[in-house]
Amino acid sequence: MYRIVSEPIDIAELLTFVSAPEIGGIVTFCGTVRKQNAGRAVLAVEYHAYPAMAEKAMRAIGGEVLQGYGVRRVGMAHRVGRLNVGEVSVVIAVGAPHRHEALGATAYAIERLKQVVPIWKKEFYEDGSAWLEPQASSEMGS
Question: Residue 87 maps to which CATH number?
């Protein structure tokens, strides 16, 4: 399940998708719009994507996760449009036989999503706006 959506992400649907009797660990990552970035107060964020390309890239990341981490199921959704502070922008759900694999796979998936999925982010501030470049976490060594 790999989706670009314009409405709020259905987290319960993703959890149901990654659930199965052989799954012992489910990890869900929810990214939300934060109120401050780089010392500036954020009022809102606007995400843009080319859905067909973005979902294809998300599917490829899902394949990497399924092969490399021993997980059984992966689901990802990213919201587009204007989001206010506190709203969920991205959800990744992973189901694996054990928690260790699910945790590692989820961390890998969000970093890869930030690196390769064609989603563009514009932040709005009291004094203007700015398009942001995609960035992976420095903690992942990327």
Answer: 3.90.1170.40
Q: What angle do CA 73, 77, 4 make, to 5 degrees?
A: 130
Distance separating alpha carbons of residues 105 and 92, to the nearest angstrom? 10
Q: Which stretch of DSSP H or E encloses residue 87? A: none
Distance CA 56, CA 115 (A): 14
8 A C-beta contact, residue 103 and residue 70: no
Number of domains in the chain: 1
Contacts of residue 25, defined as CB under 8 A and 6 or more positions apart, other chains included, come to: 95, 96, 97, 98, 99, 100, 101, 102, 103
The tens digit of pLDDT for each residue in 14-44 reads 999 999 999 999 999 999 999 998 889 999 9
